[in-house]
Specification:
The complex is a heterodimer of chains A (about 450) and B (about 200).
Chain A lengths: L3 H4 L1 H8 L3 E5 L5 E4 L1 H7 L3 H4 L4 H4 L5 H14 L3 E3 L25 E9 L5 E10 L1 H88 L6 H14 L1 H33 L7 E3 L1 H11 L1 H4 L3 E6 L6 E3 L1 H16 L6 E10 L2 E8 L6 H4 L19 H11 L3 E7 L3 E9 L9 H10 L2
Parallel strand pairs in A: 7-9
Antiparallel strand pairs in A: 1-2, 1-5, 3-4, 4-5, 6-8, 9-10, 10-12, 11-12
Chain B lengths: L6 H26 L3 E3 L3 E6 L3 H9 L4 E10 L3 E9 L2 H7 L8 H27 L3 E3 L3 E7 L14 E11 L2 E10 L2 H17 L1
Antiparallel strand pairs in B: 1-7, 2-7, 3-4, 3-5, 3-6, 4-8, 7-8
Helix pairs in contact in B: 1-4
The chains are: A alpha+beta (about 450), B alpha+beta (about 200).
């Protein structure tokens, strides 16, 4: 059996473990200084023993270290420092002179109270552990985590973008099918409108001719036998001939106006939907508003007065189909803001290189807690099944794609004002000129 | 099943913690040359699932910093220290730091406070019941945390925890600290045995 006393095991451990060990008394005089400390500090035991630590190493952070050691003396508890917060206590060369990449040995220190039998702390023993290797690995790990966090953040962004794109696709597909339907209906309506219009022209002419004939007959009426005159008078009275004579003209005129109206709605519907028009164009926003107002007339005309305050801003470069979609959403939303009657004010103007449109209603307003969420996809306050919650989020994306701004101000009980602001130019006309041409062919 | 301390044991523990903290407070005051006030520790045994609401109950709706320190020996466990502080710079100055703190120094100050308080409390208790106890280096849980998110009960391997609320005030440099001592079941037993032995000697 080996006698450990012969081997001086404790001394061996203190001296030979790859761990700095030293001790100080309450006056900070060095009482223990192991081989690790000697090797790395370049100071042997004789030169430090009994000497004041801060005189030997004036570069040590004296105030802090004194307090730290004092607290271990006073409290009798352990204390620690970690390389993550304080790279080192002593500035030693690290153990990786060639492959290191750090300028000094990184250290974890433990401050241990060495108590006598009465429990009084007589010495504070400080151990110094070289953590350079761990630290380097940890740093690499931290870098890797940063990179992977960054990638995850980017992925999140992409997911949001994808969601946006999906919503927009959903909405534009809906718009496209409405557009196709509208274009089909418009085509079907245009044919009968054409012949009704032409027939109406003929009818107007023919009635005119007939009226000439009737007038001629009227002039000859006096020469007719009295019984015929009585019959004529009776018939004229029966059919209210005098009124009828004037009414013919009015009827024809009003019918023509009606036809014109139908034709305009059909044209606007086609114009608005622009099924295959994705290209950038120079467009008159006021015309876009008028077109859109005609299309949504049904939704808003019964309970709403629309006031236009146009400032005639310059035309802007935009994708008109998409901007119409934004305007339609804003107008329909505004129209839905009134329980009964209300007024929508549409203003236009320009400011610097931007053109703006304001759609303001004097309706119920949006509560502050909802105001921040109205552009979120699927956010809706309408009853289930009524709104998709996509309208404003799609608007927002469209405006963002136009590098414009869509902002909102609202006060509960007073009303809401949406402001759409678009830059005048994008320089995109050339890129998509082919598409623009193609779509012009299909424009009404 | 979860072990709990009985009334006598809890009362004894509260008194020991109070004495331990009191001694520590005196020592800290001597080092920092400032008057240190420590409130009387309040001890609770709680289900671990209730720890988040307990912490929230202590500090209210405010951001906290939190760190942990493990101890081992006569009884073994971890101490969590939750700190709300508006004046860490002031404390750091007392601890010998100069100028305003960078992030690493702020964290170091926090860990030192945890070390001092955890050591004072758990070390004080251990010393009085005659248990040898050692500490591992403290580590940071996080800063600017929601009090409800300091501890996720489903990540705890224990069912009950010993919570100890103590307020720690240094002159005008106010700092509130709340300690939660987490002990595994068998260690609650070890502590209970130590407390019983201690009570027998009275």
């Amino acid at each position: 059996m080996v006698d450990l006393k012969d081997l001086e095991l404790p001394g061996f451990i203190v001296e030979r473990l790859e761990l700095g060990v030293f001790a100080v008394d309450p006056d900070f005089n060095v009482m223990l200084w192991n081989r690790f400390m000697q090797t790395h500090s370049g100071k042997d035991l004789e030169s430090v023993q009994g000497q004041n630590l801060f005189e030997i190493f004036p570069e040590l952070p004296q105030d802090w270290l004194k307090r730290k050691i004092e607290s271990v003396f006073a409290l009798g508890n352990y204390a620690f420092t970690s390389w993550e917060h304080r790279a080192y206590l002593f500035r030693f060369k690290h153990n990786r002179p060639i492959t290191g990449g750090v300028d000094a040995m990184l250290q974890n220190c433990t401050f241990l109270p060495l108590k006598d039998s009465t429990g009084t702390v007589r010495l504070v023993v400080i151990t110094l552990q070289d953590c350079t290797d761990t630290a380097l690995i940890q740093q690499r790990l931290a870098e890797a985590i940063t990179i992977s966090d960054e990638e995850r953040r980017k992925q999140q962004e992409l997911i949001v973008k994808l969601e946006d794109a999906k919503n927009q696709l959903f909405q534009s597909e809906k718009m496209a099918s409405i557009g196709q339907l509208a274009a089909g209906v418009a085509h079907e309506i245009n044919n009968p409108i054409g012949f009704v219009n032409s027939n109406l022209g003929s009818l107007e002419r023919n009635v005119g001719d007939l009226m000439k004939l009737v007038n001629a007959f009227e002039k000859a009426e006096a020469g007719l036998p009295p019984e015929s005159q009585i019959t004529l008078k009776r018939v004229k009275k029966e059919i209210d001939f005098e009124f009828l004579k004037d009414d013919f003209t009015d009827l024809i005129k009003e019918t023509k106006e009606g036809l014109d109206h139908v034709r305009r709605i059909v044209a606007d519907l086609k114009d608005f939907s622009r099924v295959d028009q994705t290209g950038w164009q120079i467009a008159d926003l006021e015309k876009c508003i008028d077109t859109t107002l005609n299309v949504v007339a049904n939704e808003i005309k019964y309970n709403v007065t629309v006031v236009k305050e146009y400032g005639h801003p310059p035309h802007v470069e935009c994708v008109p189909g998409q901007i119409n979609q934004v305007l339609m959403n804003l107008l329909v939303n505004a129209a839905q803001a009134f329980p009964e009657r209300g007024q929508i004010t549409v203003r236009t103007g320009d400011e610097g290189m931007y053109v703006w449109v304001e759609v303001e209603d004097n309706g119920v307003g949006i509560p502050p807690e909802n105001l921040g969420r109205i552009f979120e996809p699927f956010f809706t306050t309408k009853p289930v099944g009524t709104g998709t919650g996509l309208g404003l989020s799609v608007c927002y994306n469209i405006v963002r794609k136009h590098e414009g701004e869509l902002t909102v101000k609202s006060e509960v009980g007073k009303g809401t004002c949406f402001r759409l602001s678009l830059p005048l130019f994008h320089g995109k006309l050339d890129e998509t000129s082919d598409q623009t041409e193609a779509s012009t062919v299909n424009a009404p | 099943m979860s072990l709990r301390l009985n009334e006598d044991q809890t009362a004894a523990l509260q008194e020991l913690a109070n004495i331990g903290m009191g001694q520590a407070g005196n020592s800290i005051a001597r080092i920092w040359k400032e008057f240190v006030h420590l409130s009387i520790p309040k001890i609770n045994m709680v289900e671990s699932t209730r720890i988040p609401e307990l912490i929230h109950g202590y500090v209210g709706d405010t951001e906290v910093s939190a760190s942990r320190q493990a101890f081992h020996g006569g009884f073994r466990g971890e101490v969590l220290v939750i700190v709300t502080s508006n004046d860490r710079n002031g404390l750091a100055h007392l601890m010998g730091y100069e100028g305003s703190l960078d992030i690493a120094e702020r964290e170091e100050v926090l860990l030192d406070i945890v070390n001092i308080l955890g050591g004072a409390c758990v070390g004080g208790i251990a010393q009085q019941v005659g248990a040898e106890i050692g500490f591992s280096a403290p580590s940071l849980i996080g800063e600017h945390l929601n009090p409800l998110e300091v501890i996720k009960p489903n990540q705890l391997a224990i069912e009950t925890a010993l919570s100890l609320e103590v307020r720690f005030i240094v002159e005008n440099r106010s700092l509130s600290a709340h300690l939660v001592i987490l002990l595994p079941n068998n260690e609650v037993k070890a502590l209970a045995d130590l407390l019983d032995q201690f009570l027998c000697t009275l």
